[in-house]
Amino acid sequence: MTTPAGRGRPRDGATDLAILRAGLELFIERGVEGTSIEQIAKKAGVGKPTIYRRWANKEELIAAAMETLIVDEAGWASQEAVDTESPYALVEAAIDRAAAAVTTVQYRALVARVFGSAVSHPQLMSTYWQRYILPRRKLAAALLARARELGTVADDVDVDVDVAIDMMVGAVTYRVLQPDPPDVDEMRRYLRAVYRQIGLLPP
Amino acid sequence: MTTPAGRGRPRDGATDLAILRAGLELFIERGVEGTSIEQIAKKAGVGKPTIYRRWANKEELIAAAMETLIVDEAGWASQEAVDTESPYALVEAAIDRAAAAVTTVQYRALVARVFGSAVSHPQLMSTYWQRYILPRRKLAAALLARARELGTVADDVDVDVDVAIDMMVGAVTYRVLQPDPPDVDEMRRYLRAVYRQIGLLPP
């Protein structure tokens, strides 16, 4: 999918993986502009031609790395759970894990880099969006719909479900990039406040 | 303030300004990692020593550029207006201008770069925060407090005023960095939905 047409599928899985991992690590550490194919080749222990046989440029390589290495299971709930369990209980059960996940320096650094390249290299945001964000948004939308059925989220939120999701996700990603990033305990309280405000936790 | 101690204040205002403008433009276009003192010197039409006499490195120069060039008047309301006028009316009156401002490619690109450097170069986010964000947050907090007095914003929002502000600002900055950024009309509707959700516009 991310392999350019005409270049064929990569044939060596282990080499591929080493290159993609090196690419993602360098992207997170230095951004697109600070990363070169030469650095990726060196870090992965391969020659530049090995990389260019697979990807046309660093943007395609980094997009492919996100496509391959970023896990797409949303983690905090299955569609079945959303359909049958209480939204309050589901959200409450997910808070510890979410607070731990979004406060790691790896998460903060990846979000910073993806946001940072959104205007200059929209392909990277686009891949991250498809791969990581959309599956989570689908679940969040189902959860909001269910909460509305149950009457814990007001009707007017449902009208703008994408806005409500942006308000939750936007607040959290914005918060972890602020000058004084929260620790796990503070993030737990923060997430509770956000979910309460939207109506996904009791007032 | 951003001039390193011992280097003295810059003496040539026009040269300073040319250097700072070049630094900010290159930062927005290429990020911190893609910008060098050499490029800034070339763009500003000065020698590298002229820059190094004023700033120790590119991070300090870019921070100084934000300090100097980013206008700090929040624009959408004065403290007096917040104290005396209806929050609904103030928010409504600010929407056209805000929608136009946040949908420009310059705004989107600057936000992307500042967020993008938040983990690798926290000094830049810190300067942006002090210079641009904090004055706006102060006004927004006053507006929320006033709306709460008037009963249009629920009490529980007031408990977490910083969270409510993050939800508004976070949503908007997140939205303009998404793969399909909104035009001015869509942003107007989007802002209305966000303010309605918080209680700063009528349901």
UniProtKB/TrEMBL annotation, chains A, B:
Q: What are the entry keywords?
A: DNA-binding, Transcription, Transcription regulation
Tell me a Gene Ontology molecular-function term this record carries. Answer: DNA-binding transcription factor activity
Fetch the InterPro entries from UniProt. Answer: DNA-bd_HTH_TetR-type_CS, Homeodomain-like_sf, HTH-type_TetR-like_transc_reg, HTH_TetR, Tet_transcr_reg_TetR-rel_C_sf, TetR_C
Q: Which Pfam families match?
A: TetR_C_11, TetR_N
- Listed SUPFAM superfamilies: Homeodomain-like (SSF46689), Tetracyclin repressor-like, C-terminal domain (SSF48498)
PROSITE patterns of this UniProt entry? HTH_TETR_1 (PS01081), HTH_TETR_2 (PS50977)
Q: Does the keyword Transmembrane apply?
A: no
Q: Where is the HTH tetR-type domain?
A: 13-73
Protein name as annotated: HTH-type transcriptional repressor
Q: Which positions make up the DNA-binding region?
A: 36-55
